[in-house]
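User: Some background: our group keeps a shared notebook of sequences we're curious about, and every so often someone picks one and asks for a predicted structure to add to the entry. Today it's my turn. The entry only has the sequence so far, pasted here. Could you supply the structure so I can complete it?
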Amino acid sequence: MSSFLRLTAWLLIAAAIVAPIAIGMNTYYLHVLNLAWIFAIAALGLSVATGVAGQIVLGQAALVGIGAYATALLMMRLSLPWWLALPLAMALTGTVGAMLGLISTRIKGHYLAIVTLALNEIFRIVAVNEEALTGGPMGLRNIPTLRIPGLGESITQQLYLPLAGLMLASYLLMILFHRSALGRELRAVRDDEMAAEAMGVNSVRVKTIAFVICSLWASLSGGLYVLLVGFVAPTNFTIAESVKMMLMVVIGGLGSIPGTMLGAIVVTILPEALRDLQTYYMAAFGAAVVIIMLVWPKGLGVFADWLWGSVLTGRREPEAASPAGPLSLAAVAAAGPGLAGGTALPDSSGPLMRMRKVSRSFGGVRALNDVSFDVMRGEILGLIGPNGSGKSTMINACSGVIHVDGLIELDSHPLQNRPAWEVHAHGVARIFQNVRLWESMTVLENVMVAWRRIPGQPGGEATIRQASLAALEQMGVRHLAMRQAGDLSFGQSRLVEMARAIVGRPKVLLLDEPAAGLRGGLVMELSTILQRLRAQGMTILVVEHRIKLVTSMCDRVVVLNLGDLIANGAPAAVMESPVVIEAYLGERAGAASHETRARHIRRRSVDHAGAHG
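Assistant: Of course. Here's the predicted structure to add to the notebook entry:
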């Protein structure tokens, strides 16, 4: 869309906001619009915790109430000016939000919803019974209001434009937040928390920040409400009000910032527009909400996102140039050594990662039993074994997903039982056995989340974007950068997951069955890609059932069986080991020739991989 049309659209929106004042709208309806701006601010805060971070919060009205009461009490009891009382109230409410954020790391889903619902009821009970502090059921009256002479005769007229301006400012801040690195991390946690942590996202930190932002916006709206009406009572902050705010977010579309703002305005204004229907107006309101959800199942955000992205900003992400195919050896060669930062095979004089007596039990099942081996610097190490041998458990232990007994070190830094995001920060990246992309995000955003800041290297959005596009180029899928991850085929998703794993230039790359879902020649091309990554400075530990792939690319192979390490050595020697043959085929070494048994192992492994693919 041309700049002229975008400017015209913005002017029309500005005119629509100013029109009620210009035409001298009835004070009552002007007051309803003021409430719409205030509710929109509260809903935008709730959208961060619920829509962006995926945490169900049914106590937003309590947070609004804390901000309202704190602002009122600071002005009435301590005689503080509004410009000091409001920030202090926001700081207090933000502290409550931080505590809620820490709680959300312990409890999830409907349990968190119940806790926040209980918070709302606790707040209401305290507000009703602590009459000396809160005024009891009658609330606090004669609170100093904010007056701005020159903007109208009544306070409703005077605050109309400032409240609309604050709402728009809050909205623009939320848009910037949604597109920031922190916003991407929150969306990753919402889509798949385990994958987000394995890619370096500190879920405790980002959830706490989400609740703090939610609380700050709630407190701001509560303080503005007090400054507008000069009155506050427990009936203003009931559970019904929390449900109403949640309805604003749902109607707007979970995760849509423009949709949330539009949803808040619709939910606030629509009941008043239908009030002439008298006793039937709530039924009409409910019917209108149902119609909206039927027309736009994903909420008003479908329309609002289009309006913001296409009409008002004309924002377009450039389609990145790419090789024609989904995976190309030419693309791998063209990417060169620049991504990983190396130009030749690294020094392999010693171990990079050490495992000593690593054990893990699940109930009565011993998944790992005192397993010890080294991953040498600059090698591709294959980790193989029959089903249930403990391979994925070892990968999970090395990436911080599960806790184990024993020692896991990377460059002498102990990694065992550390949070997954700390393990990632030390230089360990992984892919999962089942593809775990964040499907609500674009391919490029998926990769950008996993970028790891290396000391001495520049940061910033431009750097992260460039590195992410380079990783996609390395996997031959740069042309998919702006596609939604949920729209990809399985094979494309696997390659994007590989790009996500290598974008942070890890010291150790953990691959759990990377060839799953790939067909034909692509499987052997994967071997070439991994050898290229190794040449660029990465050390790779790979779990794989395709023995032909393992023998073609691995320098060494470790074999697990029923949680025990049974072989460790060169691929050819390991394949001929009687112990390995017995583990795979369940027969004694003398039952057939070594060559025949080794061939059976390869065939069984290929058949197993085909069944999984």
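Suggested note for the entry: The longest strand covers residues 351-362. Residues 203-229 form the longest helix (27 residues).
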